[in-house]
Amino acid sequence: MKKVIFIFIGMSFILQFYENQKLKQEFLNCPYYVEQNLKDYMDYFKKNRFLSLEDIVLKVNVELDISFLEKEANLQDGNLILVNKYHFLKSDYVPDLVLMDVRYSYEQKYAQREAYEHFISMAEAARLDGILIYNVSSYRSYDLQDKLYKEYSKKDLNVDTYSAKPGYSEHQTGLAFDINSIRDSFADTKEGLWLAKNAHIYGFILRYPKGKESITGYKYEPWHYRYVGVSVAQYIFENQITFEEYYAKFVL
Q1: pLDDT of residue 8
Q2: Which CATH class is domain 71-251?
Q3: From the candidates 114, 170, 221, 245, which is the catalytic residue?
Q4: Which end of the chain is more exposed for a tag (fewer CB within 10 A), N or C?
Q5: Residue extent(s) of CATH 3.30.1380.10 domains in the chain
Q6: Catalytic (active site) residue 244
Q7: What is the layout of strands, in order, in the sheet containing 204-206?
Q8: 113-128 vs 190-198: helix crossing angle, rounded to 10
Q9: Predicted TM-score (pTM) of this structure
Protein backbone atom coordinates (compact mmCIF):
# COMPACT_ATOMS: atom_id res chain seq x y z
CA MET A 1 0.00 0.00 0.00
CA LYS A 2 2.81 2.40 0.94
CA LYS A 3 4.55 1.62 -2.33
CA VAL A 4 1.40 2.54 -4.27
CA ILE A 5 1.13 5.82 -2.37
CA PHE A 6 4.77 6.69 -3.07
CA ILE A 7 4.30 5.90 -6.75
CA PHE A 8 1.19 8.08 -6.84
CA ILE A 9 2.98 10.97 -5.14
CA GLY A 10 5.94 10.57 -7.48
CA MET A 11 3.72 10.60 -10.56
CA SER A 12 1.87 13.66 -9.29
CA PHE A 13 5.18 15.46 -8.73
CA ILE A 14 6.36 14.58 -12.25
CA LEU A 15 3.08 15.71 -13.82
CA GLN A 16 3.21 18.98 -11.86
CA PHE A 17 6.80 19.53 -12.97
CA TYR A 18 5.94 19.09 -16.64
CA GLU A 19 2.83 21.28 -16.31
CA ASN A 20 4.98 24.02 -14.77
CA GLN A 21 7.55 23.71 -17.54
CA LYS A 22 4.81 23.96 -20.16
CA LEU A 23 3.31 26.98 -18.40
CA LYS A 24 6.71 28.68 -18.22
CA GLN A 25 7.15 28.21 -21.98
CA GLU A 26 3.69 29.65 -22.62
CA PHE A 27 4.54 32.69 -20.50
CA LEU A 28 7.80 33.05 -22.44
CA ASN A 29 5.81 33.41 -25.65
CA CYS A 30 3.56 36.14 -24.26
CA PRO A 31 3.98 39.76 -25.39
CA TYR A 32 5.76 41.91 -22.79
CA TYR A 33 7.27 38.87 -21.02
CA VAL A 34 9.94 39.90 -18.47
CA GLU A 35 12.17 37.08 -17.28
CA GLN A 36 12.67 38.34 -13.73
CA ASN A 37 8.89 38.38 -13.24
CA LEU A 38 8.38 34.69 -14.05
CA LYS A 39 7.87 33.59 -10.44
CA ASP A 40 5.29 36.35 -9.97
CA TYR A 41 3.51 35.26 -13.17
CA MET A 42 3.34 31.69 -11.90
CA ASP A 43 2.10 32.73 -8.46
CA TYR A 44 -0.53 35.06 -9.89
CA PHE A 45 -1.71 32.35 -12.29
CA LYS A 46 -2.41 29.98 -9.38
CA LYS A 47 -4.80 32.52 -7.85
CA ASN A 48 -6.33 33.77 -11.12
CA ARG A 49 -6.69 30.81 -13.48
CA PHE A 50 -9.65 32.47 -15.22
CA LEU A 51 -7.34 35.14 -16.69
CA SER A 52 -5.44 34.73 -19.93
CA LEU A 53 -1.67 34.42 -19.64
CA GLU A 54 -1.24 37.70 -21.54
CA ASP A 55 -3.45 39.48 -19.00
CA ILE A 56 -1.42 37.99 -16.15
CA VAL A 57 1.87 39.13 -17.69
CA LEU A 58 0.52 42.64 -18.14
CA LYS A 59 -0.94 42.90 -14.64
CA VAL A 60 2.28 41.71 -13.01
CA ASN A 61 4.47 43.95 -15.16
CA VAL A 62 2.61 47.13 -14.20
CA GLU A 63 2.04 45.84 -10.67
CA LEU A 64 -1.71 45.40 -10.97
CA ASP A 65 -1.18 42.22 -8.96
CA ILE A 66 -0.24 44.12 -5.81
CA SER A 67 -2.64 45.26 -3.14
CA PHE A 68 -5.06 48.04 -4.08
CA LEU A 69 -3.59 51.54 -3.98
CA GLU A 70 0.06 50.94 -3.17
CA LYS A 71 2.76 52.65 -5.24
CA GLU A 72 3.68 56.28 -5.89
CA ALA A 73 3.64 57.30 -9.56
CA ASN A 74 7.05 57.97 -11.10
CA LEU A 75 7.27 61.73 -11.74
CA GLN A 76 10.37 61.18 -13.87
CA ASP A 77 8.15 59.66 -16.57
CA GLY A 78 6.94 63.14 -17.55
CA ASN A 79 4.07 62.98 -20.04
CA LEU A 80 4.13 59.20 -19.73
CA ILE A 81 3.45 59.18 -16.01
CA LEU A 82 1.18 56.29 -15.04
CA VAL A 83 -1.59 57.17 -12.63
CA ASN A 84 -4.27 54.56 -12.04
CA LYS A 85 -5.80 52.54 -9.22
CA TYR A 86 -2.37 51.26 -8.24
CA HIS A 87 -0.10 54.26 -8.84
CA PHE A 88 -0.82 57.48 -6.99
CA LEU A 89 0.21 61.12 -6.78
CA LYS A 90 0.84 62.85 -3.47
CA SER A 91 -1.71 65.36 -2.28
CA ASP A 92 0.66 68.29 -2.88
CA TYR A 93 1.52 67.36 -6.48
CA VAL A 94 0.67 70.13 -8.95
CA PRO A 95 1.83 70.00 -12.61
CA ASP A 96 2.92 72.94 -14.79
CA LEU A 97 -0.50 74.46 -15.34
CA VAL A 98 -1.98 77.11 -17.61
CA LEU A 99 -5.46 78.58 -17.66
CA MET A 100 -7.46 77.37 -20.66
CA ASP A 101 -9.06 79.91 -22.92
CA VAL A 102 -12.87 79.78 -22.84
CA ARG A 103 -12.81 79.11 -26.61
CA TYR A 104 -11.54 75.63 -25.75
CA SER A 105 -13.07 74.96 -22.36
CA TYR A 106 -16.43 75.09 -20.65
CA GLU A 107 -15.81 77.61 -17.87
CA GLN A 108 -12.28 78.40 -16.77
CA LYS A 109 -10.24 75.24 -16.33
CA TYR A 110 -6.53 74.50 -16.01
CA ALA A 111 -4.40 72.00 -17.91
CA GLN A 112 -0.77 70.97 -18.15
CA ARG A 113 1.00 73.39 -20.48
CA GLU A 114 2.19 71.04 -23.25
CA ALA A 115 -1.03 69.03 -23.26
CA TYR A 116 -3.05 72.22 -23.59
CA GLU A 117 -1.01 73.40 -26.58
CA HIS A 118 -1.75 70.14 -28.34
CA PHE A 119 -5.40 70.32 -27.30
CA ILE A 120 -5.63 73.70 -29.04
CA SER A 121 -4.12 72.23 -32.22
CA MET A 122 -6.63 69.38 -32.10
CA ALA A 123 -9.58 71.68 -31.46
CA GLU A 124 -8.61 73.96 -34.35
CA ALA A 125 -8.19 71.01 -36.72
CA ALA A 126 -11.61 69.74 -35.68
CA ARG A 127 -13.10 73.18 -36.29
CA LEU A 128 -11.84 73.11 -39.88
CA ASP A 129 -13.77 69.85 -40.29
CA GLY A 130 -16.90 71.45 -38.88
CA ILE A 131 -16.47 69.76 -35.49
CA LEU A 132 -16.63 71.63 -32.19
CA ILE A 133 -14.71 70.03 -29.33
CA TYR A 134 -14.12 71.61 -25.96
CA ASN A 135 -12.95 70.60 -22.51
CA VAL A 136 -15.44 70.03 -19.71
CA SER A 137 -13.01 68.73 -17.09
CA SER A 138 -9.22 68.77 -17.15
CA TYR A 139 -6.94 69.36 -14.15
CA ARG A 140 -8.42 68.50 -10.77
CA SER A 141 -6.65 69.07 -7.50
CA TYR A 142 -6.34 66.33 -4.90
CA ASP A 143 -8.92 68.10 -2.73
CA LEU A 144 -11.44 68.47 -5.56
CA GLN A 145 -11.11 64.79 -6.45
CA ASP A 146 -11.60 63.91 -2.80
CA LYS A 147 -14.81 65.92 -2.73
CA LEU A 148 -16.14 64.38 -5.97
CA TYR A 149 -15.31 60.83 -4.92
CA LYS A 150 -17.06 61.23 -1.58
CA GLU A 151 -20.15 62.67 -3.27
CA TYR A 152 -20.33 59.78 -5.76
CA SER A 153 -19.74 57.23 -3.00
CA LYS A 154 -22.83 58.39 -1.12
CA LYS A 155 -25.02 57.62 -4.13
CA ASP A 156 -23.42 54.67 -5.88
CA LEU A 157 -21.81 51.43 -4.66
CA ASN A 158 -20.13 51.04 -8.07
CA VAL A 159 -18.26 54.32 -7.77
CA ASP A 160 -14.85 52.67 -8.27
CA THR A 161 -15.74 51.67 -11.82
CA TYR A 162 -15.80 55.29 -12.97
CA SER A 163 -14.31 57.55 -10.31
CA ALA A 164 -10.86 57.56 -8.72
CA LYS A 165 -9.91 58.02 -5.11
CA PRO A 166 -8.00 61.26 -4.42
CA GLY A 167 -4.41 60.91 -5.57
CA TYR A 168 -5.31 58.16 -8.04
CA SER A 169 -6.98 60.32 -10.66
CA GLU A 170 -5.28 61.05 -13.98
CA HIS A 171 -6.89 64.46 -13.88
CA GLN A 172 -4.42 65.51 -11.17
CA THR A 173 -1.64 65.24 -13.80
CA GLY A 174 -3.29 67.93 -15.92
CA LEU A 175 -2.83 65.61 -18.92
CA ALA A 176 -6.41 64.28 -19.06
CA PHE A 177 -9.41 65.93 -20.67
CA ASP A 178 -13.08 65.02 -20.56
CA ILE A 179 -14.33 66.29 -23.90
CA ASN A 180 -17.82 67.67 -24.67
CA SER A 181 -19.78 65.14 -22.62
CA ILE A 182 -19.59 62.46 -19.96
CA ARG A 183 -22.18 60.17 -21.53
CA ASP A 184 -21.55 56.87 -23.30
CA SER A 185 -23.68 58.13 -26.18
CA PHE A 186 -20.91 60.62 -27.00
CA ALA A 187 -19.11 57.78 -28.80
CA ASP A 188 -21.69 57.86 -31.63
CA THR A 189 -21.79 61.62 -32.09
CA LYS A 190 -19.89 63.28 -34.92
CA GLU A 191 -17.54 64.79 -32.32
CA GLY A 192 -16.92 61.44 -30.65
CA LEU A 193 -16.30 59.71 -33.97
CA TRP A 194 -13.90 62.47 -35.08
CA LEU A 195 -11.87 62.14 -31.88
CA ALA A 196 -11.73 58.35 -32.10
CA LYS A 197 -10.30 58.69 -35.61
CA ASN A 198 -8.02 61.71 -35.21
CA ALA A 199 -7.00 62.34 -31.59
CA HIS A 200 -3.78 60.31 -31.86
CA ILE A 201 -2.51 62.68 -34.56
CA TYR A 202 -2.29 65.37 -31.87
CA GLY A 203 -0.84 63.15 -29.13
CA PHE A 204 -4.04 62.02 -27.40
CA ILE A 205 -5.32 58.53 -26.65
CA LEU A 206 -8.70 57.20 -25.61
CA ARG A 207 -7.65 56.30 -22.08
CA TYR A 208 -10.39 53.85 -21.11
CA PRO A 209 -11.41 51.85 -24.20
CA LYS A 210 -14.23 49.33 -24.40
CA GLY A 211 -13.31 45.76 -23.54
CA LYS A 212 -10.18 46.74 -21.58
CA GLU A 213 -11.79 47.26 -18.19
CA SER A 214 -9.79 44.47 -16.55
CA ILE A 215 -6.60 46.32 -17.49
CA THR A 216 -7.49 49.98 -16.98
CA GLY A 217 -9.72 49.38 -13.96
CA TYR A 218 -12.43 51.68 -15.32
CA LYS A 219 -15.48 51.33 -17.52
CA TYR A 220 -15.50 52.54 -21.12
CA GLU A 221 -15.30 56.35 -21.27
CA PRO A 222 -15.49 57.61 -24.88
CA TRP A 223 -15.03 61.19 -23.70
CA HIS A 224 -11.84 60.77 -21.63
CA TYR A 225 -8.67 61.51 -23.60
CA ARG A 226 -5.13 61.59 -22.26
CA TYR A 227 -2.10 63.38 -23.71
CA VAL A 228 0.96 61.14 -24.13
CA GLY A 229 2.76 62.74 -27.08
CA VAL A 230 2.34 62.16 -30.80
CA SER A 231 4.64 59.17 -31.36
CA VAL A 232 3.31 57.26 -28.35
CA ALA A 233 -0.30 58.02 -29.23
CA GLN A 234 0.32 56.84 -32.77
CA TYR A 235 1.73 53.51 -31.54
CA ILE A 236 -1.12 52.95 -29.08
CA PHE A 237 -3.71 53.77 -31.75
CA GLU A 238 -2.17 51.54 -34.42
CA ASN A 239 -1.76 48.59 -32.07
CA GLN A 240 -5.10 49.08 -30.28
CA ILE A 241 -3.59 48.70 -26.81
CA THR A 242 -4.08 50.51 -23.52
CA PHE A 243 -1.67 52.92 -21.92
CA GLU A 244 -0.95 50.28 -19.25
CA GLU A 245 0.16 47.87 -21.98
CA TYR A 246 2.39 50.47 -23.60
CA TYR A 247 3.87 51.43 -20.23
CA ALA A 248 4.64 47.81 -19.40
CA LYS A 249 6.45 47.28 -22.69
CA PHE A 250 8.36 50.53 -23.17
CA VAL A 251 8.51 52.63 -19.99
CA LEU A 252 9.13 50.24 -17.10
Answers
A1: 44
A2: alpha beta
A3: 221
A4: N
A5: 71-251
A6: no
A7: 135-137, 176-179, 224-227, 204-206
A8: 120
A9: 0.79
